[in-house]
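Folding problem:
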Amino acid sequence: MREVKSSILLLMKEAGLLQLTQYILNSKGYGVTGFTVCYQAHQWLHQGNFPRLIIMDSPVTFKDEPDFFKGVRYSGIYYNVPILVCMSPEENITLEQDFKDRTTDFIRKPFNPMVLLQKTEALLTRNEYIYA
């Protein structure tokens, strides 16, 4: 059995992109839990699960559920968990500035799987001291 590197919470509005991203991360040994609805991700967190990284669609994508992003970023429990936001090509650069203080990094869709893996590894490595 292969050792799981880290627990990642994946939140994508599109089921196909969620499955593809899960596959890419799982193939490199990451433990990934994915949801297409913020409420389900919120429940997963409240069950005592603690991700080492959150990868999610832009908060604008979840405009019907805006409190998830704010709740995670401003909570005392998850404040230090890095967030990688996947921005669609239509979202402009000013949106990145709006979320810069609450987001650790950005990646543009469609993204190269190698870039996703590089950013994932970099964010986990940069924050490993928090969990030591």
